[in-house]
Amino acid sequence: MDARELRRMVRATGLHPHQCPPLDEPWRTWLLLGGRGSGKTFAGAVWMDVAARFRPGAVIALVGPALHDVREVMVEGEAGIKALAEPGDRPRWEAGRRRLVWANGSTAYAFSAEDPDSLRGPQFHAAWADEFCTWRKPEAVLSNLRFGLRLGPDPRLAVTTTPRPIPALRRLMAEAGTVTDRAATADNAENLSPGYIDHLTDLYGGTRLAAQELEGQVVEGEGALFRIADLKQARGSRPAELDRVVVAVDPPASAHGDACGIVVVGRRERRAFVLADRTVRGLSPGGWAAAVCRAARDFDAQEVAAEANQGGEMVRSVLGQADCPAPVALVHARRSKAARAEPVALLYEQGRVVHCGDFPALEEEMLALGCEGGPSPDRADALVWGVSRLMLEPQGEGPSVRLL
């Protein structure tokens, strides 16, 4: 897809930034997780219309929960593909062949997620999959669809859905080539009925349902260690002074591509304060080490705590070469990530950890700990190291007094 054409379409349609596919990074799958009414259907429709008009004769797949959903929502709905075009320039719907045809010969065929085998055989330049999390066999449908994405030099897939904590979604988010964007219902407030968001917030605000259906967040699933209710209650302000600040680091396992979890945590008396998520991805060791050092300088950290299981002394050496302004403490993982996170989750339940800002990517990883599937919890693991260092280790609670 040509970036200039996408930018032109953004200007012409008034898309919000979260509704535009990534322009500056390579991707094979664009996953847009959105709350109800966040404009995710409109985003998918714009992308499909651009794909059809940009490449005359393009063959496209439209996959919805059922054929009825494809026609009534994705094609002819108020935010569907036909609603985008000016009168006289709209693609026509051919009900008998279940396809949408543009004047330049591009064609989009409708498929139901209820019939995965219907995607065997056809081939496409692009595809749009809507409400992925409601499909009964999401991974079977998705695999058949991907085998058909084999036309043209750069076939791509857009997936728009309100999230649910299902393993198929967590695995999709973790796949190489997937770029995930998020959209809350409030991001599209000007296009919704007045009072709609306030009413639902009054009814469901702070609950698991609101996080999923209004904020587009992947909430906790079966076996999760952290609860959405505890994370919602953890919102707060940074205190004027902190007793100690630590930059916690979960180094990447490879030299390029993996994420380096970088989370800044402070302590004031008997509470921990999450100050920043500075996680970076796709950098060399020198690149992520520089990001760690910037975080240590920005927050005047007294220590950098880095997991030593990946790289050992190499981690200390790389940080030293980057002129780290704080002492580096290497911490060693002797238990699984989930086991290490359990006492930290208890601190959240007790209200002893405060998030001084919005950290959606970090919180989604936390909610996935203990569940099946999901991306590597680089951010969440760094947070666990930081909170544990400050609150759970013997030196974490600060000076103590012993009576003789």
Could you walk me through the main structural features you see in this protein, from its secondary elements to its overall organization?
The chain has two domains: about 5-190, P-loop containing nucleotide triphosphate hydrolases (Rossmann fold, 3-Layer(aba) Sandwich), CATH 3.40.50; about 230-390, Nucleotidyltransferase, domain 5 (2-Layer Sandwich), CATH 3.30.420. Helix 10 packs across helix 11 and helix 12 (about 335-350) crosses helix 14 (about 380-390). It is α/β, with parallel strands linked by helices. It has an eight-stranded mixed sheet, sandwiched between helices. Strands 9, 10, 11, 12, 13, 14 and 15 form a seven-stranded mixed sheet that branches. The chain has helices at about 5-15, 40-55, 65-75, 80-85, 140-150, 165-175, 195-205, 210-215, 230-235, 285-300, 315-320, 335-350, 360-370, 380-390, and strands at about 30-35, 60-65, 90-95, 100, 105-110, 125-130, 155-160, 180-185, 245-250, 260-270, 270-275, 280, 305, 330, 355. About 35% of the residues lie in helices and about 20% in strands. The relative contact order is 0.11. The N and C termini lie far apart (about 75 Å).
